[in-house]
């Protein structure tokens, strides 16, 4: 049995989690770098929660400057088994209007300037990303939204751009034509790294705008996004609170194996592995490396 620890990553507009009891800031060091902010550990009901502000209080970090490896590694070290991201996003669908919550289930990674794996020279691993979110965790998020009367659309494809500039009209139209649902700048490589770290991942994407493709809406601005975000943040925090209160004490085994993604992923022969890299992988891959 593995005790469930619920991680929450707060994105734009969500820099804290009200209702977290017995909060302590934990100073976890990572060999991968510096996390976005100090992790906050506390409880909601009987569930242990670890909260991380992705851009830090004051929105100090741009999507490119976030050290996604340090964030995921620290969450793993803090014992997180299940991780929910709360994110702002633009929409490519008329029916996904600003204010809509989308529980995305696919990602397209168009980022270019981010370290996107814990593995590499000296320890090569290939995990499956065919199904990037953990279905049971998404079910729990959907149930929490329903219980709080928050409308949430299940399923959708999130394209992750590098940013920080928003898309050109041609890019926006091409993403729309490709059938993508929403766009943001942060869920990749976060979801890939969570998978490598065997943490079940789900993302709640809160639509703040229609990007720039919509003929009846002006191109997106930060001012508009912040206005919608402020309205959404209260709902997102309510959703997270309910999710936590109803969360099981034991981590539920993931039906698609996101919590044991490394079982058959490491290809480098034991005697060809780099001890320095193995040292850095102690948290992320400790489960499989210890038994090797
Ligand atoms: C402030 S709008 C652009 C910004 O918001 C989203 O971040 P997050 O996913 O952390 O909520 C988007 O990806 C951009 O980073
Ligand atoms: N239109 C958009 N493009 C990229 N990231 C976003 N975050 C919120 N709205 C966005």
What's the arrangement of secondary structure elements?
Blueprint: E1 5-10, E2 21-26, E3 39-44, E4 47-53, H1 68-77, E5 82-91, E6 101-103, E7 106-110, H2 135-147, E8 152-154, E9 157-161, H3 169-178, E10 182-184, H4 187-196, E11 200-209, H5 222-245, H6 275-280, H7 286-290
Parallel strand pairs: 1-4, 1-5, 5-11, 6-8, 7-9, 9-10
Antiparallel strand pairs: 2-3, 3-4, 5-10, 6-11
Helix pairs in contact: 2-5
This protein binds the ligand CSC[C@H]1O[C@H](OP(=O)(O)O)[C@H](O)[C@@H]1O and adenine.
Question: Would you mind describing this structure in some detail?
Answer:
The protein is α/β, with parallel strands linked by helices and 292 residues long. The chain has a domain at 87-290: Rossmann fold (3-Layer(aba) Sandwich), CATH 3.40.50. The protein has 7 helices and 11 strands. Strands 1, 2, 3, 4, 5, 6, 7, 8, 9, 10 and 11 form an 11-stranded mixed sheet that branches. Strand 3 (39-44) and strand 4 (47-53) form a beta hairpin. Helix 2 packs across helix 5 (222-245). The longest helix is centred in the C-terminal third of the chain and has 24 residues, at 222-245. It is globular and about 60 Å long. The model has no long low-confidence stretch (mean pLDDT 97). The structure holds the ligand CSC[C@H]1O[C@H](OP(=O)(O)O)[C@H](O)[C@@H]1O and adenine. The ligand CSC[C@H]1O[C@H](OP(=O)(O)O)[C@H](O)[C@@H]1O is lined by residues 11-12, 54-55, 63, 87-88, 184-186, 222, 225. This is S-methyl-5'-thioadenosine phosphorylase. Substrate binds at residues 185, 209-211.
């Amino acid at each position: 049995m593995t005790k469930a620890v619920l991680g929450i990553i707060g994105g734009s507009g969500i820099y804290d989690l009200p209702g977290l009891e017995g909060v302590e800031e934990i100073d976890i060091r990572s060999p991968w770098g510096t996390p976005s902010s100090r992790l906050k550990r506390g409880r909601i009901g009987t569930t242990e929660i670890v909260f991380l502000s992705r851009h830090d209080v004051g929105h100090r970090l741009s999507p490119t400057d976030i050290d996604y490896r340090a964030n995921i590694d620290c969450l793993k070290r803090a014992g997180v088994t299940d991780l929910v991201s709360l994110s702002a996003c633009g929409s490519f669908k008329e029916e996904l209007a600003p204010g809509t919550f989308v529980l995305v289930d696919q990602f397209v990674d168009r980022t270019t300037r981010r370290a996107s794996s814990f593995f590499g020279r000296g320890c090569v691993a290939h995990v499956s990303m065919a199904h990037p979110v953990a279905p049971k965790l998404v079910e729990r998020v959907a149930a929490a939204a329903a219980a709080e009367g928050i409308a949430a659309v299940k399923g959708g494809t999130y394209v992750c751009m590098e940013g920080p500039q928003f898309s050109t009209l041609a890019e926006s139209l091409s993403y729309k034509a490709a059938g993508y649902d929403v766009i943001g700048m942060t869920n990749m490589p976060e979801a890939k790294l969570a998978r490598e770290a065997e943490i079940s991942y789900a993302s709640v994407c809160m639509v703040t705008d229609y990007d720039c493709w919509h003929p009846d809406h002006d191109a997106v601005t930060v001012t508009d996004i912040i206005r919608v975000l402020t309205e959404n943040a209260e709902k997102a925090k309510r959703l997270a609170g309910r999710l936590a209160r109803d969360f099981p004490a034991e981590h539920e085994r993931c039906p698609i194996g996101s919590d044991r993604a490394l079982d058959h992923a490491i290809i480098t022969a034991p005697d060809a592995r780099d001890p320095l890299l193995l040292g850095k992988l102690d948290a992320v891959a400790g489960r499989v490396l210890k038994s090797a």
